[in-house]
Each structure stands twice: as C-alpha cells, then as structure tokens.
Amino acid sequence: MPLTKPPPPPPKPTFDEFSTPADFEEKFRKKETTKYMNPCASEEKQSMKCLDVNNYDKSKCEYFFLQYRECKKKWQEERRRLRRAGQL
C-alpha cells in the first residue's frame, strides 16, 4: 500500500465582526458573581442548530464550530486586555 500525503486542510475562515452586543461590558460589570454570561451565544446557537438539522454530523458543521471557537478566542483576549488595564 503506497503512502500518500493527506490533502492540505481547508483555509481557516476569517471573521471580521465581533458579535458581542454593544452593552455587554456594562452588563458584565453589573452581573452577579455566580451568573454566567456568554457573549458568543448566537454562534453557539447556530452551531447547535446546525447539528440538529444535520442529524449530529459534525463534519457538516465545521464552519459553525470554527466561528464559535474564534468568537470565544477573541472574547478571552478582550477580557484579558480589560483586566490588565484594570477596567474589569
């Protein structure tokens, strides 16, 4: 059996808009300590809806997973920046 190289992965999509609501930072400061707030709720819902529609075939929803992952990454970076600046 000859060894073949796997095909290269598809290019990673770029997401320009940050979907955090404009008033999220204010709400985040006023929230109770134990209350969870998700700025990427719309991406999370889209990925779950995709799974439901496609009978939980993850390969068909990769785009939505990437979008959710990128949103979470951007939000974590923003929270770190705000904490370093003493604003959060």
TrEMBL record:
Function (record text): Required for the assembly of cytochrome c oxidase.
Localization per record: Mitochondrion intermembrane space
Primary localisation category: mitochondrion
Lineage: superkingdom: Eukaryota
A single BP term in Gene Ontology: mitochondrial respiratory chain complex assembly
PROSITE patterns linked: CHCH
SUPFAM superfamilies (UniProt xref): Cysteine alpha-hairpin motif
Region (Disordered) location: 1-20
Protein name: CHCH domain-containing protein
